[in-house]
Each structure stands twice: as structure tokens, then as C-alpha cells.
């Protein structure tokens, strides 16, 4: 045996001894960002405005953030590819800015600099052995399309179809993993209702009772259009896979039948709202959701349900529109039918239109570690429950975890031990889910870089790399979690 082989054997033995949870051989480690949150490069680049540019002009974040420079990945993607390579990820999830490709959202006006930018970005990743996973739409609709109704206009389905067909044609020989829309649930609820938090396009609070359901409906149809275009026109020659990115929250409940039913109802109005039409055996919206919305609408004196309906043909097409499920998971809540007694935390379910439509109280478990006093509480077993739900109810469709992560706690700075603990907990739960038989193919930490965190501006930092937003160069500094994640990836296992 030569020296290299001996060394390799020793290295293998050492990792075997210390690795206590090993991941499958082809498991893909990844990290993620989205276009508006990191790119910058807005001026002099031919990019058209998106709904977030206008929204921020009218509704500044507490720290007066804009997306003008952000992390400047528009200029710094080559250095970033080096950092990604150094961490060891084999996949990188990012999104494309529709209005950078098509400044007014339409295929008759293409921005060549934008097209070149994504080619350069993809090439620099592929050259380093990193597979791109592209999200086609991560909440940044071209402003020109919002002026024509945005996701409330069913035409948006066709606009999206034209955009994605261009993308598959242009990049499909290099990109083998596509997701259509990021978290339609958050985009419909925050963007087209504004409770409990508002996102762009905003201004729909008075119309919540219908606007979020219509927006969500058109996003499902748009996903379906994109999925069907890909599968019919491109997949046979390009051999890639397509899915949609769904956010799941898990809902725990007390051991009472009415609470169990309430928790199932909330999950139907959140995850299954999108998952059931696309991945469910029968397709269409969940039965509980349809029945509840029909009943409420009748009581309100309406002649038809506030929940729109699909035609039988649409139901069929939607059911054939995805190869895999791209999952984002951050946190869990507690659900009860009645106002929780001895409630130590705010039960907010019924304060929103969505909560009233469900008819249940949503609160939290004070024992789950709260991160930096925010909405985020760590409950890793929620991830395992979601994955098992998918295995049982959606025929064990392959899952790509495209987001999971936590923000900095201010005291820790670069020594981000809370983040390491959060990720370790979730990877342990993920490992258990794999033992349970769940078909999970990858894990992407959100996020690669500190970035524009929507309503919270640059204040909430999710990156494993710190970004100095006061410095025009936007320097990146690894946090302690980079070193930790690098070791996990190298060993393909959790270590002691
Ligand atoms: C995601 N929740 O949104 C988005 O996809 C990212 O763009 C964002 O930066 C990231 O999570 C961190 O917030 C979420 O309430 C919004 O559980 C809300 C929740 C989860 C994810």
C-alpha cells in the first residue's frame, strides 16, 4: 500500500470513530440566497424595477434598507464561488430576478447584460463542481406586471410561462434543478393580505378575505404551467427535474380530539393548501379547506366560495407538474381550538383573516428556544414530523430541503454557537427522518450570506458569512459556523 492510501485509510478510520450520524452517500450539502436579497447591481445594468423597489420607497424598513447594493453579488459572484467551494457545498440555491432578464416582465424586451450575468454565475459554480439549483421566482415580480394586477390577474400565469420558457431555453443545458416559486404561501399572505406582516406589493389588507386566496390560486396555476412546459418541451432533451418551494410550519397540539382536528385544519390552510393540489393523490385543495371556506362564504351571504376552484383539467395538469418537493422549514407553533388557558404567550390565530378563516388559536411553546427575541423558535422535531407527513401523504416524493437556518443573536457576533446548535438539532432530526424512510436528497443552509431580510431590512442576519453593509466593498467574513459546516460536509456526517 502506498503512502497516500495509508493516509486515506487512517483519515477514514478517524472519521468513522467520531462520526455518529452518517448521511447517505449521494446526499447533497448546499446553501441558499435569493436575487433581491443579495444581488444589488440595480443601476446601469439594464435591470427593470421590481415590486420590492417600489414597496421600499413607500414603506421604509426600520433601518431604511434598499436593494441597491445589498451584498453586491452582481459584482462579487466570482469570489463568492471560491467561498462556496471552500465550504465544500456541492449545490448552491439562488434565484433569478425576472426583471433583470425582462425589464418589464415581457419576452419582447430582453436585457442582454442580465442574461450574461446568470451565465457567468452558473459557469463559475459549475467550474467549481457546484450544481446550481435555480428558483425562478423569489417574490420580486417585475413592477410593470404589478401595474397590470400582478398575481391577482390570471394573465400572470401566462406571463410566468413566457418567462420560464425563455429561462429553460437559455440555461437548461447547464441547470438540472429548477424550482418555480418560492413560498407561495408567504408571498400570497404577506404580499396580498399583509397579516401578521406586510411584504410587497402590499396595500391589500382591506381585501384580505379574498385577495390572498386569488393570488395563491394563480401562483399554483403558474407553477403548473411552468412544470408542464418544462416536462413536455424541455425535460426529454435536458433531463433535469422541476419542483416548487413550499414553506412548512409544523403544528403541535394537546392530546384532545378537537385540538388534533384544529391542528390538522391549520396545516391544511398552510402547507397542504399548496402541497395537496400538486403532490396529493386526488389533487385539488384539501377537503377540509374547501368545506370550511364554502361554509364561511355561505354564512357571509356570498353566492360562491372565497376559495377559487380549479377545473377538472387544471386539477390533472397541476398533479403532473412536479418531480420533487423543495422544502423550507424554520419553526413550529402550537394549535388549540379554544383560547389556551394559562397562556403565557400571545395566541394570535384569530387576530388575522387567515386565522379567523381557520377558526383556531395559534400560539407557541415557551420551552422551544427562542432565537434573538424573534418569531423564530427552534423545534427540530417539527422538521421530522413534516418530512414524515410528506412520506405518508405524498407518496414519499423526493424532498430537497432548500432552506433552514437562524439569525444571529446579537451577543455572539462571529462566534455563532446558537446557529451551530440550531443547525445541529435540525440535522439530527433530518437524520432521524432518513432512518424513518423519508427520501431527502439535500440540505441547504439559509443563508450563505447575511442579506436583505425583507421587512426586517439588514438587521436580521441569517448568513454563515458576515457581510459588512457599511463598507462599500461588502467584505465577507466567515462566522464560526462555516468551519463547523465544512467539517460536517467533509465527513458527510454529524460529528461528536
Ligand atoms: C423565508 N416562518 O421566509 C424566505 O424564503 C427567505 O427569503 C427569508 O430570508 C428566510 O425565510 C428567512 O426569514 C420565511 O414564519 C418567512 O416560519 C416566514 C417563515 C419562514 C420563512
TrEMBL record:
Catalytic activity: beta-D-galactosyl-(1<->1')-N-octadecanoylsphing-4-enine + H2O = N-octadecanoylsphing-4-enine + D-galactose; a beta-D-galactosyl-(1<->1')-N-acylsphing-4-enine + H2O = an N-acylsphing-4-enine + D-galactose; beta-D-galactosyl-(1<->1)-sphing-4-enine + H2O = sphing-4-enine + D-galactose; beta-D-glucosyl-(1<->1)-N-octadecanoylsphing-4-enine + H2O = N-octadecanoylsphing-4-enine + D-glucose
Pfam families in the cross-refs: Glyco_hydro_1 (PF00232)
Domain of life: Eukaryota
Keywords of the record: Glycosidase, Hydrolase, Signal
Residues in the signal sequence: 1-19
Gene Ontology biological-process annotations: carbohydrate catabolic process
EC number: 3.2.1.21, 3.2.1.46
Gene Ontology molecular-function annotations: beta-glucosidase activity; galactosylceramidase activity
Family: Belongs to the glycosyl hydrolase 1 family. Klotho subfamily.
UniProt name for this protein: Cytosolic beta-glucosidase
Species classification: Eukaryota, Metazoa, Ecdysozoa, Nematoda, Chromadorea
